[in-house]
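From: lab user (bench 3)
To: helpdesk
Subject: output format question, protein + adenosine-5'-diphosphate

Hello, I'm new to running complex predictions and I'm not sure whether the block I got back is the full result or only part of it. Here's what I submitted:
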Amino acid sequence: MAERRIPAPPGRFAGLSPLSFVLLVAAAALVIASLGDVSPSPQRLAEGGPRMARLVGRMLPPDLDPAFLARIGLRIVETLQIALIGTLFGVILSFPFAYASARGVTPFGPFAFLFKAVVSFARTVPDLVWALIFVSAIGLGAVAGTMTIMMDTLGFCGRFYAEAMEDAEEEPREALTAFGASRFGVLMGAVIPDAMPSIIATTLFALEKAVRSSVVLGLVGAGGIGQELKTAFDLFQYEKASTIILAIFIVVLGMEWATDRLRRLLR
Amino acid sequence: MALDEPRAVAAEAAAACRLTGIALSRGGRRVLDGLDLTVGAAERVALIGPNGAGKTSLLNAVVGLAPITAGRVEALGRDLSAAGARAAVRGETGYVFQRHALVKRRTVLSNVLHGFLHRPGAWRAWSAMLAPEAWRAEAMEALAEVGLADRAADRADRLSGGQAQRVAIARALVRRPRLVIADEPTASLDPAAGREVMSLFSRIVAKRGVALLFTTHDMADALAYADRVVALKGGRIVLDRRAAEVMPGELEAVFDG
Ligand SMILES: Nc1ncnc2c1ncn2[C@@H]1O[C@H](COP(=O)(O)OP(=O)(O)O)[C@@H](O)[C@H]1O
Ligand SMILES: [Mg+2]
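Helpdesk reply: Thanks, we reran it on our side. This is the complete output you should expect:
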């Protein structure tokens, strides 16, 4: 057998270009500088512990006054209504946007990106910012919250519905086209049925997301339980605040449980 | 209907489709190059040839799914370049694909009803739930013809490959086509299922007296189920014979060299 010379392994840092080395050092410097600026110092942590304990002490026991509980109950219902109706409007709005922006499905050809851009914009603006905008535009209250959830849902469902439509099987689409079906006929006959499981999963997730964000919308005056929480903190009514936090906890957990069940049911 | 037009009637008597000097490019490559082919009104023609010979492109050109760069396509008495001709031709053509191309999550009946998507009021063909009673009855008739009426309520993804292809045939037939195009209808099936599908298919086509243009990789299928065999190679027709007159080994020779 001929003698084989095994080449030496490549150098340890052969894969590391000068540029990536510089970038690594810069990133490390940024993290270290930021640590000093915003992270809690040991001293603040030491002070914060007892303060936190005192706050929790003042939160207990939670206020269980029936009249207060009734008001919280109504606010919870309002919160869920905001989430539900906002998601519903958002879903209704998402379908045309997904249809208009999905590659291979859109009737708008090269202009499809315009619709994609609208959806991206709805998604990248944070929900609290949408809430501030709608509170300024149409006033305090639940309607601003519903509009916020609608925009949030459009940003989320508009994108994932479009992806589900793009991923729908190619062959049935071609078949229906060959049969003389219109683009819309192909969408309704082949694309939507194929994308349906994905669309349903996305919608359930959007609803879950909507409940979670509708809880905090009240902080900026857009209705729901968040408004009560802000008032309680502003007026130092910590026993009321703890009741509200517990209620929120129960609602969000219940929602996740319900959507999980639904998902399993639909599989 | 086309029958009201005297010109259409005259042409129909002559041919289901007539391609004259067609050329066609795909991805910058010339796929078909000055090709002539006529399929008679009740003729069954098998199209054979190596992979990439342009068989699928030719079938697609007949219904205007692949745009031609030169020549003339006439189908069912209409010049395909005329306004509205493409939709009219597709409306009277049944297309069966290599993979059955059913919508998996829909019922067998819904899939057959998709054959009506070219009709006025097409939205009622989106699903079996919306379809008018007459369409549903016609779809059941077509399913019975391929022996699958008892599976109408099943989801399409519960069928075997052969059954799915039979549903695809029913979907094409429910349109009452005058021309049926099939692109390697048995390629995704095992030999036994392929023969079963192909013999059923050609029997129905013969009974209805409509034209059939199909591609296949199986020389035995070409000889058994077609009146005429046409071989395509390098974008041209290299052989065109009545099936009964094909010499042993002649078809296989198309694939050599
Ligand atoms: N959509 C397409 N884009 C680019 N090239 C294509 C496309 N469809 C087919 N072709 C090319 O055209 C040629 C003929 O293809 P096709 O008609 O499918 O042949 P066949 O059905 O005989 O195998 C092949 O070389 C193929 O690579
Ligand atoms: Mg092919």
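A quick orientation on your result: The CA atoms of residues 143 and 149 of chain B lie 5 Å apart. Let us know if anything else is unclear.
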